[in-house]
Amino acid sequence: MPTPFDQKIIWLHWMGGAVAEESIYELAQTVKGNTPNAAGIAIKTSNGVVWQGEYDVKAALAITGPEAIRAWVDELAANGLETHLWCVLQGRKIQEEADLVIQACNVPGVRSMILDIEVGARYFGGQTAETARALITAIRAGIPEDFHLALCFDPRGYHPRDIHIQEWLPYVQSLHPMVYHWHFSEASRGPRGYLDDAFRVLAQYNLPIVPMLEVYADPATGTPVPPDQIYDAGMYSFESGAAGITYFRLGSAGAAEFEAVNRIEVEGGHHEIVRPIDDEDEEEPLEFMVVTDAVKVRTAPSLEPRTVISGRVLYRGTRITVDPTSREEADGYVWWRHSTGWSAERSIDGSTIFMMEYLEGDSEEQNTTNVPQPAFLFQNLPLDLSLVQWIQYYGNTIFAYNNGFQHNYHSYSQGLHGGFDLGHLGGASVCAGVEGVLKYSGNKRAFGPNRVDVQVNSYLIIYGHLANATTLPEGTRVTPDTVLGQIDYNQQHVHLEIRYQQYIYNPLLFMPNTLCDALLARFPAEGSRRFCSENGWDQWLTVFDQPVITLGGEYIGPPH
Predict the structure, then answer these.
(1) What global pTM score does this model have?
(2) Between the chain's N and C termini, which has fewer beta carbons within 10 Å?
């Protein structure tokens, strides 16, 4: 599909107050004099229901309506530059916003309109799919059928989902992912990984891709983008199949940035570079198998929530091949790039494992019972540690061996203790300890007198034997400090149980090391808290060496 950006470099312009030039002519001369390989300028026309000129301090450059846009078209054309437009849509007053865009697009000589759709309070954040549909259909109905609309957005994590990308796609002709690598990485990474991720995420939509690249300094550190990275971002975009590229923005570019952009050749065959592979130097691919219930796929090796790719999850037993040269350590984890994104193998210290290297001959049934589960961590203990008077650990405890049959452990939790008990005489508050969603609170399920269930991702946490259980409605988001109830004076403990589908997991594997250390120091696994070794039984004898329990599964405990 041809676009107005094909084999072109386009500069973005924000507003007159952001550049040193005092007129359209001076700005055109700056662009032509420093980057003669650039084809045009995209000027910002509106922000929601307001013309961009209302924020400008330079009347000669201010966009106050169609006539001001016409002046830009004429002056840029006189200097051999194309006029493209861009705007920020907010979705608050649909028809008013659409009217400004329609007026701008209908100015003769305008080549395209780039619609900037972002999450956040000042942008399109929080709007519904219905709002997106109404806004884009109103715009498209008011402009020529063959006028080129482009969609600009952050391609990382949940952003495409949160802007309701499916509503925009039928009405736009190109995708302009924001690939601000220096900003996104806080001045620590080059552009190629971010570009690879953007192209991979957007490939499913079958539209031309025009990356929006960065020349401005990292806001967090104030560090300028290395000129070689500005150049590499542009060249690598074309090598990766970009229709064209844009750079954000004029006013942020100095001599070094302009020189870097000017080095990019936009004609000829250099965009079809094929790198020879030396077979002797090529590394063997690595294969991993997921050994936890679910591993997230991200656009970058980072725990930043925006990097999570919606709908992409690797489940237990999945085998993946990773790029053996892609290993990175970031945010406390070891990361690898594979065909659908980045995933973590393990924590750097080895205390949390998501995937294990798969070797030929390995059984698909690798032992995963001792693998710490990484889906979430408790931020604090549900019962304040200073109030805890006794505990019973999860799994093969002597308590389960001696008392399990009378508590139905043999048919419920394979003869083992299926939870972690925190004891108190009664009346102390029990908090969630995690961020999640309230799924149940009442007295109609096991673990009375009351039970509260909280969902965290795909895991269900049960807080059993509570008094005065919360009356918050189902679906309420809870925080670590949300009070769920109190310790019942009769039961005198809270039963903490973590489930995933039909499996029960050791709650201590979901607690940070500092909390586990404090618990073990105060309540060592000895005496009435010890693990069962009766009749020569030699399995599961330490706190963390406990099996995953199958709910309702066959008895696996020590023989009586």
Answers:
(1) 0.52
(2) N
